[in-house]
Write a structure and sequence with these properties.
This protein folds into 2 domains: 168 residues, 2-Layer Sandwich (Ribosomal Protein S5, domain 2), CATH 3.30.230.10; 129 residues, Alpha-Beta Plaits, CATH 3.30.70.890. It contains 10 helices and 11 strands. Helices cover 37% and strands 26% of the residues.
Length: 307
């Protein structure tokens, strides 16, 4: 095999209360990574799509770093050159660097018929994503590789469990037209949290796992309630509470910040209502002087795959 192209989906980390632990893959957005054999090293020769701020240097690019990690794991002496097509916006809270890392890791393994499983690829992809965004967390890389919803039980050693999917869940994502780098959104995190807030988030996270395993949309919607991280990050997203209230008033079951933001997601089970929710969210952003785009997605049950 001389070349292979892989698609890896966008993802929503945290899913509200599950900070750094829960994540889910979504349809509609994702990155394509093509890997081709070269004699040695890693080169990035093309980046298209939403690529304005994406570096070509492999050591600064999550796809390039993931490719290096997998080549080392496979003990391959050859190298790869990568072509990346980005449809996941950078620094938007939708797992952009994770999608590229997952796509590259999967592509290199396929190119050299390495035999690693998607679970095996979570660690090198997460290492790569951590190098560019800060912090070793698999709540985006795991769903990008495995699809569906995932739970990271432990980071050292990395222990990731794939949860079920909610078939009829509709996810409305409003993405404001500005970037919010993960490092900036993590800089505002508190050192200590009140015990009642911790207990509430823990309860919502546990019940969210139950919602995934039973396919209960209403339960899932009730659990999208973050009393720990959302309040301290809200000020980084102009108009956040106006957008959230607009979504809930339009009939959303729940609404919160997607990953580190600035994207905001809301959930429902009705397509007509989803469009109304999306319109209400973008209008609320616009009323606060912020332009935004909206998409309606479902849970992506498949992770990274050859196209």
């Amino acid at each position: 095999m001389k070349s292979v192209t892989v698609f890896a989906p966008a993802s929503i980390g945290n899913i509200g209360p599950g900070f750094d632990v829960l994540g889910l893959a979504i349809t509609s957005l994702g990155d394509h990574v093509e890997a081709r054999r070269i004699p040695s090293g890693v080169r990035i020769v093309e980046i298209t799509g939403l690529s304005d701020s994406i570096p070509y240097e492999p050591e600064s690019n999550s796809a390039g770093l993931a490719a290096k990690e997998v080549l080392a794991l496979l003990n391959v002496r050859e190298g790869v050159e990568l072509c990346i097509h980005k449809s996941v916006p950078s620094a938007a809270g939708l797992g952009s660097s994770a999608a590229s890392a997952a796509g590259a890791a999967f592509a290199v393994n396929e190119l050299f018929q390495g035999g690693l499983t998607p679970n095996d690829l979570i660690y090198p992809a997460t290492l790569a994503e951590a190098a560019v965004s800060g912090g070793f967390f698999a709540d985006n890389t795991a769903p990008a590789l495995l699809g569906g919803a995932t739970l990271t039980r432990c980071r050292e050693p990395l222990d990731v469990i794939k949860l079920g999917s909610i078939r009829d869940l509709l996810i409305v994502v409003a993405t404001p037209a500005f970037e919010l780098p993960t490092k900036k959104s993590r800089a505002v995190l508190p050192d200590y949290i009140p015990l009642p807030s911790f207990v509430e988030n823990m309860a919502n996270s546990c019940l969210m796992v139950a919602a995934f395993t039973t396919g209960d949309i209403n339960l899932f919607g009730r659990c999208v309630n973050d009393t720990v991280i959302e309040p301290v990050r809200a000020h980084l997203i102009p108009g956040f509470y106006d957008v959230k209230n607009a979504a809930l008033e339009a009939g959303a079951f729940g609404c919160s910040i997607s990953g580190g933001g600035p994207s905001v997601f809301a959930v429902t089970d009705n397509m007509s209502r989803a469009h109304l929710i999306g319109e209400a969210m973008t209008k609320a952003f616009r009323d606060c002087g912020v332009e935004s785009t909206m998409c309606i997605a479902k849970m992506e049950t498949n992770g990274a795959r050859v196209t």
